[in-house]
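Support case: pyridoxal-5'-phosphate complex. Customer-provided input:
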Amino acid sequence: MQEFDTIGKPKMVNPELYTGSTVLFESFSDMKKAQRGKYEGIAYGTDRLPNQRGFEEALCTLEGGSVTRAFQSGINAIENILFCFTRTGDHVLICENVYGPTAAFCKKILAKFGVNFDFYPGNCGAEIDNYIKPETCLIFMESPGSNTFEIQDIPSITEVAQQHDIITVLDNTWATPVFLKPFDLGVDVTIQSVTKYISGHSDVLLGTATANSRYGEPLAKFYRAMELFASPQDCYLALRGLQTLDIRLRQHQQSALEIARWLLKRPEVDLVLHPALESHPQHAIWKRDFSGSSGIFSFSFHQEPDDDEIESFVDSLDMFGLGFSWGGFKSLVTAGRYQRQHSPEIHNKMLVRLNIGLEDVNSLKEDLDKGFAAMKLLTK
Ligand SMILES: *Cc1c(COP(=O)(O)O)cnc(C)c1O
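Agent response - structure generated as follows:
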């Protein structure tokens, strides 16, 4: 150690990585302050170490919020926000096209604490009023929604919510703060699955919640009382991801749009569920509120494929990995049917979801060509 001390610390472009549990105090007086919760500095490993604080601050600035806190995953951020802002007897509203585990958490865990929930349509606007009960305390939005990509009219929902003094939360993972500024649309708390575009390389699990000035303090107090924290290494990678977020998103946007338009022209394809396409039912709302589109969307078939056909389509792809999550450099594919009571044109239809990565677009099209050809071989 002596040897290093004489060399001095190099000044690196990137921040130093701080990990661990124990932080040493300068004096017993400081330690006593920490014991009373009055210490100004960082007192312990769960006290948000410098890499976490640096990432939270950078994201908070980008979001235009008041307080950001990092969580060990996107779903962990969502679960904690639902705990933070509800109590027994409350009712919450969740969009029908919400990320599956968010709905599962409400059904399996929140309900145990006497907090009930109902779904509202994924393309909802001011009609949200019809779903509000006297005990509704929180409206959870995700726009565009997972897998089916309906768009909610966020400013109309937040306006109604404000009239009832209901807190609004938006899962903004698809657009990121680069393409949507939720606080300008009246949202109170935003969620990011940092796992997706912000970290951007499929090597991190991390989430954030960012609150406006009204809800910043309750969020910070809840986080403190729960002794929550995020991994310093993951915060380091997330901060690094932020440096290239804008430029990566622009490439994802361009490549995904090119493939979406190409799919629209294919004879096999019926609907391409991409909000930036003129054919998307809520395209006008997307255009009004968003400044760009990212790299994930779905499509359906004119002729509903049977299990063997969809299997041959997916299994014949080489460039599209068969895996969950998205937002990274590698293109991925999933396929499934989703319950959408309020969107009959896609309810229970087979949808293929593509995460368009950063590979060459023409090679991705050739790969999809192979999928369609393999499916055709099986079609009677
Ligand atoms: C993936 C995802 C999440 C959960 O993120 P994890 O970091 O994987 O827990 C939440 N919301 C949306 C919209 C997602 O796509």
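The pocket of pyridoxal-5'-phosphate is lined by residues 73-75, 99, 142, 146, 171, 173, 193, 195-196, 205, 207, 325 (CB under 6 Å).

Case will auto-close in a few days if no follow-up is received.
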